[in-house]
Amino acid sequence: EKAEVKHESAVIGLYDARGLEIPEFDASTHAVLPETLAETYEIGIQAEINNIAMYDKFLEQELDDDVRVVFQALRDGSINHLEAFQRASERPSGGRNGRR
């Protein structure tokens, strides 16, 4: 959760630096409530794979230096999150330290 707040702040900073209005977004219309912890990890894995692909595509383009730095950091964060979801999903109980 802390990482997502940090990522959001980085993007908001890009909008603010350019005097752009932040679009309205209602996350509740996109929320998925998985039934199991294993399903939660699978959703997280796919979301991070999608994020990495999106940022890689952005980074192929000509970008201002500050935008490039933020997008690289966000992509790298998604790589770390992907690895964490994958590790968690491989645990026998699917939970932290063997607990659910």
Structure, explained:
Helix content is 65%, strand content 0%. The model has no long low-confidence stretch (mean pLDDT 91). It is globular. It contains three helices and no strands.
Show the helix and strand layout.
Blueprint: H1 2-17, H2 37-59, H3 65-90
Helix pairs in contact: 1-3, 2-3
Quick description:
This protein is mainly α and 100 residues long. It is 65% helix and 0% strand.
Low-pLDDT stretches: none
Global Rg: 16 Å
Largest sheet: none
Number of helices: 3
Q: How helical, in percent, are the residues? A: 55-70%
Total strand segments: 0
Q: Pairing-aware structural class of the strands and helices? A: mainly alpha
In percent, how much strand structure appears in the residues?
Answer: under 5%
- What is the straight-line distance between the termini? 19 Å
Anisotropy-based shape: globular
Mean pLDDT: 91
H and E order: HHH
Question: How would you describe this structure in keywords?
Answer:
single chain; 100 residues; mainly alpha; 3 helices
